[in-house]
Specification:
heterodimer, A: 118 residues, 7-stranded mixed β-sheet, B: mainly beta, 4-stranded antiparallel β-sheet
Amino acid sequence: GEEVAQTPKHLVRGEGQKAKLYCAPIKGHSYVFWYQQVLKNEFKFLISFQNENVFDETGMPKERFSAKCLPNSPCSLEIQATKLEDSAVYFCASSQLSSWAGGNNEQFFGPGTRLTVL
Amino acid sequence: DAKTTQPPSMDCAEGRAANLPCNHSTISGNEYVYWYRQIHSQGPQYIIHGLKNNETNEMASLIITEDRKSSTLILPHATLRDTAVYYCIVSYGNNRLAFGKGNQVVVIP
């Protein structure tokens, strides 16, 4: 597609429940990024993929968070045993594979999934 | 791990040029300067990026100082729809974007 699609738009979970978020990158884009926005302006990088391979996972809380990008499927971000502090908007972004290292890292963002943990 | 400094907020008059400053004194030689904005709670939107030279596109102009330690994003004719949080980011290749707190720009009629 021409836009990054994220589902669901809103997700409400009780503390301790599992949450699974989905992202369909723009067709032809090889990189997928996940960001968490807890407060209005504070973005935190979580993980990125190059195709189905993890590219950078240094932002990922390893204990309860996991993510996948499998061929011919939307990418997913899963939170096991959600906590109150996981309440945030989760944004997915995609970008094209650069033919050379350097510029034009334009990331296209989806509309986000708002996760509320009660 | 944001490597840029921006004013937390600024007001701009509708129809006037808006000049948004950014300091990035520790920028590396291969890092680009990117500008994104977030309108309301939508996903961030790419505006423009540059390495050394000034850049212009249909949305904005980017002026980068010769020492690359600072830059200015110029919205030539600000409209009410330009009210947003603007983020100045330095990045390389397909690395993560390190968003700072951004600059809340309000365009006033």
